[in-house]
């Protein structure tokens, strides 16, 4: 049996960070009396800072929203969405 003396030991991976506990859809909807943006009936959850723009999938980044506000906000930030008055126009921060 031969030993491989020239081969280095495998590198150890750093321990994984624990994920925060997932949010509960019912709890988020109960936390808000209606849509966070227009006070209409909340039917969906919306990420305040969209995942596509670096937002995290945690309870502090999720609010209740009605379908029309959630659809028009799409992947806009709140500031950009407010500048476009809630329309689905191209985001000013993309240019």
Structure overview:
- This protein has 95 residues and is an alpha+beta fold.
- The protein has helices at 25-31, 67-73, 78-83, and strands at residues 44-47, 62-65.
- The radius of gyration is 21 Å and the shape is elongated.
Task: Give the beta-strand count.
Answer: 2
Shape: elongated
Task: State the helix count.
Answer: 3
Radius of gyration: 21 Å
Mean pLDDT: 85
- Percentage of residues assigned to helices: 10-25%
**Structural class by SSE content:** alpha+beta
Sheet with most strands: strand arrangement: 1-2
Largest sheet: 2 strands, antiparallel
Distance between the termini: 64 Å
Order of helices and strands: HEEHH
Low-confidence stretches: none
The proportion of residues in beta strands is 5-15%
Question: Quick gist of this model?
Answer:
The protein has 95 residues and is an alpha+beta fold.
Structural topology:
Blueprint: H1 25-31, E1 44-47, E2 62-65, H2 67-73, H3 78-83
Antiparallel strand pairs: 1-2
Which descriptors would you attach to this protein?
95 residues, alpha+beta, two-stranded antiparallel sheet, 8% strand
């Amino acid at each position: 049996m031969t030993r491989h003396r020239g081969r280095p030991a495998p590198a150890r991976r750093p321990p994984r960070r624990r994920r925060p506990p997932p949010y509960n859809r019912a709890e988020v909807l109960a936390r808000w009396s209606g849509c966070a943006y227009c006070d209409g009936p909340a039917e969906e959850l919306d990420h305040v800072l969209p995942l596509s723009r670096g937002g995290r999938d945690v309870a502090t980044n999720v609010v209740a929203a009605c379908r029309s506000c959630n659809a028009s906000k799409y992947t806009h930030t709140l500031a950009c969405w407010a500048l476009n008055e809630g329309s689905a126009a191209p985001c000013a921060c993309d240019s």
